[in-house]
Amino acid sequence: MRRPVHLNLTLLQNNLPPAAIASKPAQPKTLHFKGGSHGVLLLHGLSSSPLELQFIARGLQRAGYTVRVPVIHGYTYGLLGEHPQSVAQWLDTALQNLDVLLAECETVSLGGLCLGSVMALKVAALRSNQLSSVLALSTALHYDGWANPWYTALLPLARYVPFAPRIKIKEGEPFGLKDERMRAWIARQMEEAGKSDAGASVLHVSELLKARELIALTRKVLPDITCPVLLIHAKEDECATPRSSYEVASRVQSSVIRCVLLNDSYHMISIDREKERVLSEILQFVSDTRKIDQIDNTPKTPGVRPALDGRRGIAR
């Protein structure tokens, strides 16, 4: 199983070599961009960092939203080995960050990328009546993409082999990127430094087993999600096919569901060729679902929401 790629978006956007940065933070930090009265909480992928969602977060802030992309001990790259955490602790941290935004903002949307999307869906099942919408990007309920190694199917057996959790799986091309320039840049970083600026080049099997635990928990509670759901997935996702998003769309109890399929991206849709469209779809969906909250300004009750025109559909 491959993990999400990690990279320094600031360097990419400014076309600067890594040497141009004299120093880097010792540890990843939570991104919190202040904006208006609607907040958006975004959860990054496993063993990654908030930087992989920085483009989306900045775009949301420019549109007037308050955005938070937290670090999670035992989950965020740089906070793994020193702070081992259970899946329950990951979820507790996500819930705590949701409470931060709920205290600061009048309404809140919750989203994530890859396993961060899975975590967002689990949290949404617990707090659906407090959310305006869920933004699920490259949801990974099934690791069935074309680039996964042959032994991915054997991963469940690892918990029964004493030494297996200590095994490391190395990142490999295409690093979740269809954009060849970005992919080459990441490959060069991996070769020169053994890692990219925002994450590790390997993932322990023990972390993948926790990912499977989170996936199992989330799949059980999908019907508890009643708030509007946006699903964005690349048709050619090499890590998890759109099957995962289709499952979410078919099992949640939301009255508003939109599924967007991308034609020119791989797994890392927040930074790949169609990142602008991803941002545009998120902005439109958040705006539309906020109108629901303005129409129904009574306290939110699970399952009671007016519908948008074309509330269920797939956009290609």
In short:
This protein has 316 residues and is of the alpha/beta class. The chain is built from eight helices and twelve strands.
Layout of strands and helices, then pairs:
Blueprint lengths: L8 H6 L16 E3 L4 E6 L10 H9 L3 E4 L17 H18 L2 E7 L1 H13 L5 E5 L30 E3 L9 H14 L1 E2 L2 E2 L1 E3 H17 L7 E6 L8 H9 L5 E6 L12 H21 L16 E4 L1
Parallel strand pairs: 2-3, 2-4, 4-5, 5-10, 10-11, 11-12
Antiparallel strand pairs: 1-3, 6-9, 7-8
Helix pairs in contact: 2-8, 3-4, 4-6
Structure commentary:
This protein is α/β, with parallel strands linked by helices and 316 residues long. It has one domain (9-315): Alpha/Beta hydrolase fold, catalytic domain (Rossmann fold), CATH 3.40.50. It has helices spanning 9-14, 54-62, 87-104, 115-127, 180-193, 205-221, 243-251, 275-295; strands at residues 31-33, 38-43, 66-69, 107-113, 133-137, 168-170, 195-196, 199-200, 202-204, 229-234, 257-262, 312-315. The strands form three sheets. The protein has an eight-stranded mixed beta sheet with strand order 1-3-2-4-5-10-11-12, with helices on both faces. A two-stranded antiparallel ribbon has the order 6-9. The two termini are 27 Å apart. Residues 1-25 and 299-310 have low confidence and may be disordered.
What is the average per-residue confidence, as pLDDT, rounded to a whole number?
Answer: 82
Shape: globular
Question: What is the CATH superfamily classification?
Answer: Alpha/Beta hydrolase fold, catalytic domain
- The third-level CATH topology is Rossmann fold
Poorly predicted spans: 1-25, 299-310
* Secondary-structure class: alpha/beta
How many domains? 1
Fraction in beta strands: 15-25%
Number of strands: 12
How would a crystallographer describe the biggest sheet? 8 strands, mixed
- In spatial order, strands of the major sheet run 1-3-2-4-5-10-11-12
